[in-house]
Amino acid sequence: MARRRRVTFESSGSSESDSDPDFSAASSRKASPIPPVENSSPSIEPLKGTKRKRRLSDHDNDEKTKGLKRLQSQKSDVNEDNEAPSHPEQPRDPGETHITGMQQVIIAAIRATDLTLGLRRIPAGFHVVVEADGAEFQTSNKSAHVDQAVVEWNEPILLPCEPSSIVRVSVYASFELSPMLGHGEVLRTFEFSIQELLGRSEHSIIFQPKHEEVVSPCTSLFMTLEQRLSDENDVAVLCPLTTLVSDHSRALLLRTDAGHGLLARYRRTQNRSDLDQSINEFECALDLCPIDHPYRPAALFNLATAKFLSCQVDGRYLDLDIPISLYQDALDLRPTSNPDRPVTQLYLAISLLSRFAKRGFQTDAEAAEELLSEVLDVYHADSHIHRAALLAIETFTLHLAGSSVGNDLVQEQPTASMLRLSPSQLANLAVWCLRRDDSPALDEVISLHYDALRYYNAMHASRGPLLGNLGAMIYTRFQRRGNEEDLDQAIAIHTEGLTLHPVGHPDRCKSLNSFTALLSTRFDLRGNAEDLDQAIAFGREALALCPVGHTDRSGTLHNLADALSTRFDHRGGAEDLDQAIAFGREALSLRLDGRKDRSVSLNHLAVQLSIRFDRRGNAGDLDETIALHTEALALRPVGHTGRAQSLIKLAIQLTTRFDHRGNVEDLDQAIALHTEGLTLHPVGHRYRYKSLTSLADLLSTLFHHQGNVEDIDQAIAFGREALALCPDGHTDRSETLYILANVFFVQYQGRGDAEDLDQAIALDREALALRPVGHPDRSKLLNNLAVRLSARFDHRGNADDVDETISLHMEALALHPVGHRGRFTSLINLANQLFSRFSLRGNVEDLDQSIVLETETLALRPVGHPDRSMSLNNLANSLSTRRVHRDSAEGLDQVIALHREALALRPVGHPDRPSSLNNLAKELSIRFDYLGNKEDFIESRESLHCALTLLTQHDPRRVIVHDSLATIYLSFHRSGLEGTGPDEDADSLNAAMHHLKTAADTVSGGLLNRLQSGLRWVRHAAEYRHGTELDAYATSMQLMDAYMSTTASVSSRHSAMKNFPGTLAVDAASCALRSGDVRRAVELLEQGRTLIWTQMARLRTPLDSLQTHGDHAVALLQRFRDLSSLLDKPPVSHADDTQSVDAEAAATQYRRLVGDWNGVVEEIRRVEGFSRFLLPPLFADLQEAAHDGPIIVLVASRSSCNAIIIPYRQPPTSIQLPTDLEKLASLMLAFHDANGKDASPKGNQIALIKALRKLWDDVVCPVVKNLGGFAPRGSRIWWCPTLLFNFLPLHAAGEYRTNGESLSQQYISSYTPSLTALIRARKSHDMCPSVSFAAIGQNCPAGHSSTLDGVEPELEAVRRLLPPPPTVSFTKITSVDATKSRALSALRDNTWLHFSCHGTQKFTDPFNSAFLMRDQPLTLFDITQMDISRHQFAFLSACETAVGDPTTPDEVIHLAAGLQFAGVKSVIGTLWKVNDWTVQRLVEAFYKKLCGDGKMNSKRAARALHQAVHSLARDKDMPLDQRIVFMHVGV
């Protein structure tokens, strides 16, 4: 007997269950007002119909998985369709698979299932090809009906007997029945050995769908095998071997099969080249078929099909004549008896209808109708061809009726199948698609649903469920991509679905619920109030259809509650929110303990309570929200699929409570929850990036509040990892960029490094680019980028940033039309930025527009709205500013009325009541100034005192209130009413000074606010010559020093300096001089000048010396800077019910920060060498600068100009100079105009000489007359100029007449930016026996067309005049070698330097002043970053190397000073431009004097320069301005 064995191969798409939650709410730290609500989206409805189910045991599932893994590990060949053949593999049973004697192996029967699943073309039939040992066997070609799941071939096929022989089984769809040209389109290929085949048991193997397909045909293949003895006389039943064909025929078959393969691949991948190649292959095949060839009809048909598709893809409907002609030719060759005639008629009819739709030829319609009628007469109603003909007729009828469908009449969609799936199959695919984030799959399943809807008309029972599923998938696509057209389409589809479920229909409730969710979403997007009202109406109707006891009542309650809470958020109607919460509580009560969906109700109610807390600030609501989320988390233990979502929601609410109460335990717990969430998403998990972004956000918050650098570093690391997991094209890359930008922005706020701000802006720009116009998140990203640009404007003052900020806010406002719930926020943001630009440029149009916007915001906050007081306050402030700008009392009463209304809305206990009291008091004070009404003064004063009583001792706003009290007392003092009443304070001026001093001393107020109060104290104390004036100066300069020390970058410090008075230090010194305290004047000058250099040196020197004191000392300095930044943050606002608890918590936190800050400073001062850390230098220390000669400090202030002579170990002397600021400004201008004028060899430069004489008479001569007792003639003196004195050539002053006096005849002049700088330069270092000298010259730098011809001769002269080795080790770098990097290397490796090149001074950004090299400038900032503390000397033979910024002259920021501050002991620089043809002579004279005796000593540089200039005095070819251009700085 023959042994039979059935072998099964099953191919299907794997079913995945995705249990991970939607983490969209976790992408930001705070919960949105309307977070995503579970089960509120349109749902997938199960379709009615029969489903084929196959029961699998656990063992079956395991085997399926194992089989899949084995298949994936096999190596395989690739067929002509680029598909890997399947390799079933099972454990072998040697006893069963051994073939003995003359046994034969026969395939007795083959059965295939689901052959039409996912096909894009209508097949004529199906067949199987078996290949083995070079032979090929082919079954007959069988057709299949629509409902026919299985096609069976009972045709025995003889296989080889050798166990190792390889057998390939391929299933094909053919497109003709007879004669059949080629194989057609391959559906599935399996490959195995005879031994594997016989050893196989009935175990299923899972195969994935084909590349980029959702479904694939031929899900299962069953083969029945027999083993027979060869002597059994039944060989005749075997199929004969395929007849060998000629080379010509083989070429025809290969071309045709290649065309089918390419066409099939195009339909899957949409690669246009595949379609073009397919057409080419079919054209070649047709060329091989002459007129009478039997395969010509098939070749014509194949080419026509490919051409027709090409016309549709390209929209070339004029070319439809070509495929129509080809179809007609094929039809003419297929007579009535030909089995392939109907399918040819069908395709010809479809192409004719397509041409009719585009051109309107009636003859096409008539011909198509006739052809389709014939097809319907011939084919059975269950055939695919019959169904396709019906679909074509139905579509044609819709077109004639004017339906929009006719515009794309029977056009074949690239992703659509002409072979419809069953309703149950479509439902399964819809569920499968919604569980995956697979965009192509979603598009394909949507297309399949559209195809099915064309078939199932309005009367069909399956149409309603299909519409529901289609609407849900389109809505999902909208959620993933943000295309508003998808949302509109989903609503339109659900509208039709609702009409199919009229009143009384059992599914009407479901349709209403879907509508509620969709309309609510569209309202969120566009703000159309009609959508929201209609959503609520539908929700109420749905609830009415779900009475108590109805299974859907709880879900309906959830949806209605969400819509009501949204309307509350939009309109502020408290009844909506309260009703939403009531519905949420009822829904929760319907889901008792033990129900699986109780956690869902807990989450829904928690969301509503969270919204109410956000609006009303009731602490009980927030606590209940957290309790509900905690219970929900307990219902989802470790291992529960929803635990990650519950962890996130609870973490968000804990973060919110931290924001309101400041309890760090809440923040720590939130971080712990997110950390657990991260463990649930290990490396490789698709949602890991969301946990990483949540942690990054929270850790940055923790850094913001505690200043722990490790937290922000970890936050950035998490953010970067998350971004790496969201590459270009990822749906959440924009959100991840947004979070990382926030982290960098927080780091910028904490550390002040502008690079962090730039990085945040770059990330924001990329995030915005990924949210194009129309995306629902675009407005949020527009706002974020605008906030960062506004911060950068505040930091750098670049007007372009504020302009772009306004443009961004304008675009965001345009996305929030009237009625949109986001409009209020956009109005506020735009109004604030317009106000800022007005403050910058004074354009009153900006201020007027700001007021218009704020007026609209007030209208959006009617009486009773919780935010109305804020809008009143903003509008009042803007109106007040406009009144001040116009210098008019007009509108003052309106401003006061607005502030009174705002105050009434902020009763005792409201956190903003002190602010409202202060605002009202300020306006009353202004009205008092205008009208002199004493009642306004009294009310203003009492309001401010009341505000003080409401503020805790550590509230930062106390500074503002004290400042306002000072203002009202000053107004009263100026009014002349002082002392007119028995209850009045007779000394209002003293009271004003007291409040200004208190404001400046309030540590909790923040350094900037305190500094501004201190400067007001200075201004008014100086105005009235009050006794506290000197204290005011000392306090303000100390605050200035502390404030500047918290700014990280030198460029930002320089920008910040421009915001404060540039004369503060000199005015303070003048005040001290007026009181006769010269020593104090010197201390104040040193304290208030060269802050940037001093702080750089202060931080650099400790960092060097702290290395010897251990890591603890280094950590102390970093901790100090972090805490200083934290103390400068604004206070957190608290709602009514949380005032007592939250304010105390905030005060406790702030006290701790202040205590920590003071503690760190005290600890640093206990470190050896740091006892004076952050304390001003004392005169006794500063006097050390005069060790080698007296220092002359020139003080230029508004009140007087003085010279202070500081000798060594003798009392200082002050001399009042016969000049003032106005004269000095004129003199500075005179030097500027005289420079270079009449500078030819024969020119006498009269203007320059007149200016030098004026300088001698007004400044230098009075000093020289008083130097006799401190410095002998011919000795050295040092000038330390301030303010305008910095720009005068003091060393060259003289009478410049016969026998006239001059400074250079009596003393050798040097300069120093500050006394501290000179002291630091005098610190001795071990001298190297050999001097390393680098001469750096660049005659043609980048960007300069002119060449400095004297550079090479100058450097050669330097080399020639220096002592030879080993005294000097000389290096010369010039021309192409003189690049920035080479210059930096030379600067680092050599202690003596000579620069000969172009120099440039950048007044707007002096740290970018530079020596110009071949490729890039060598900037002052580059130099400051180097350690050149052991360098001895630098000669700067370049233009303007000792000229500072006129806007901040006392910062002395130029190349010469920078080199000295960086560590070079002795520097020679230039005051203005130098001439290439004269400088070489001075350089030669200088080096002869410096090292003519063969010795190198940097202390001789000043004397050498002095002697060199004198030696050239009689040189008629040397203009005076070039002879005096060089100056010496340092020791």
Describe the model.
Among the domains are: 58-244, Immunoglobulin-like (Sandwich), CATH 2.60.40.150; 249-257 and 270-408, Serine Threonine Protein Phosphatase 5, Tetratricopeptide repeat, CATH 1.25.40; 420-500, no CATH class; 861-977, Alpha Horseshoe (Serine Threonine Protein Phosphatase 5, Tetratricopeptide repeat); 996-1176, no CATH class; 1179-1275 and 1289-1307, no CATH class; 1317-1530, Rossmann fold (3-Layer(aba) Sandwich). 54% of the residues lie in helices and 9% in strands. It is built from 55 helices and 23 strands. The strands form 5 sheets. A 6-stranded mixed beta sheet has the order 16-15-17-21-22-23, sandwiched between helices. Strands 1, 2, 5, 6 and 9 form a 5-stranded antiparallel beta sheet that branches. The radius of gyration is 45 Å and the shape is globular. 49% of the residues are buried. Residues 9-28 have a biased composition (Low complexity). Residues 1251-1517 form the CHAT domain. InterPro entries: CHAT_dom, TPR-like_helical_dom_sf.
Outline: globular
- Give the biggest beta sheet: 6 strands, mixed
CATH topology of the domain at 1317-1530: Rossmann fold
CATH architectural category of the domain at 1317-1530: 3-Layer(aba) Sandwich
Number of strands: 23
- Low-pLDDT runs of 5+ residues are 1-101, 201-208, 232-244, 402-419, 981-986, 1099-1103, 1128-1145
Strand order of the largest sheet: 16-15-17-21-22-23
Oligomer: single chain
